[in-house]
Amino acid sequence: MKIFIKKLTVLLLSTTFLVGCEKSFLEDPVPTSSVSDVVIFGSRAGAEALLSGIQRNFRRQFTRTDAGGVYSLYMARTVKGNDFIQNSWYNFDYDNDNREPNYTRTTFNWEYPYYMINQANTLINGVEASTAISGSDKTELIAQGKALRAFFYFQLAMEFQHTYTYDPSLPAPPIYTDLSLEGKPMSTLQEMYDLIISDLTDAVAGLDDSRLGKSYVNKQVANGILARVYLVTENWAGAEKAAHDAYGGDIASALDAGSYKDGFDKISNIEWIWGMPQTTDQSNYYYCAPHAFTDHYNDGYFGTYVNKDFADLFTDSDVRNTFDRTYASASPTDWFYLTTRKFTFAFDSDIVIMRTAEMILIEAEAKFKQGMAGDAHELLFALQSNRDANAVKSTNTGDDLYEEILVERRKELYAEFGVEWFDAKRLRRGIPRTGNHRLPNSFLLPDDKKFFLKVPRKEIDANVNIDDSVNADR
């Protein structure tokens, strides 16, 4: 990664540490590119301004429409599954044929997380070295940086290797905890998850519930990320506690069924734990996913459709049933038969990253896996009855109850972060293509290599510690 890290380091230094406009920078902590490191780490306000820039880059226009920010990672995962059908940008992801070393998806899914990790490392290292920031402020700021670093290493772990339980000794992307001019060799999944979990437990310990806004990390968000990680590593007790702490344990106050059909475009929604806010003057415009693709009523790409088999899982009285027939003449066998109104697209549509309902379902799954099936069923039905006034508690037990929890995750979280792909990968299951798919033969088998990407050609060319053999048998 020598050339790549050098490029990122120069870019980061040139956009973060240039001298100028220090007074306005401190008065208005928004993304900026004209301040020195002395100013940034000379006060808490300066470090928070750097955080603002990092959070802005969650929704940036990084490369192109299907390779912009965090939302691009999530949208690509969504269309790799069975529940949605794609016919515009993200087509190669929908084909499950977008993993070669020179492809945009492979390069972006490597470079973007590392770009964000470099920024998180700049924050962590700068705050640690500061003599002007108080000890308590250092603890909180470093905790935010570690949570962000863990979040993006988690994306790399998910994108560039089999899941953790397949074999934790397998090669994983290199680990950097400092800015570096030299590329490092590949790590292992075990080493990467050790760092991720260490960073997140530090973050949980160092944060409280306060924050500058919902785009920033607090204890609730750090617990939510940790709950997702523990699902992958199958630390069920850890997942239960982290998820419970992330949503607070009070389902009645954590959910608002009436807002489910409001368009998923407002970060102020009580169910949103973490999100990406947008304004018309700081919009990512048509890059916005899933909104610009799934919304067939406002100007966008009109590129994402719903598998009829998935829509058939919902009752008419379920608030999550947001599906419409696309055209009066469309047939149920047409791949363009159904669309969803879940997401409303505008240039100021906020983008969700994490919600309370996900945490409730993680807690339910974790309880089930620990032998507390009755408690798991109660949590599941509490969510189901919130979403559907006519819901009837199932009589499922054992494996049938577990499958019901997993189906509920798909029904609750569709098109938000690729939940179907996420669950199939961590549980080492395949994803069939059923119903009215445009490409029914582009399915995924259990432990399919198509669940992860090859190491980018640019990395191999730039890093003296990685050569062509890294992609052997990938």
UniProtKB/TrEMBL annotation:
Keywords: Cell outer membrane, Membrane, Signal. It comes from the Bacteria. The keyword Glycosyltransferase does not apply. One of its GO terms (cellular component) is cell outer membrane. Its main location: membrane. Gene3D superfamilies: 1.25.40.390. The keyword rRNA processing does not apply. Residues 76-231 form the SusD-like N-terminal domain. Residues 349-427 form the RagB/SusD domain. It is found in: Cell outer membrane. Belongs to the SusD family. This is RagB/SusD family nutrient uptake outer membrane protein. It comes from Allotamlana fucoidanivorans.
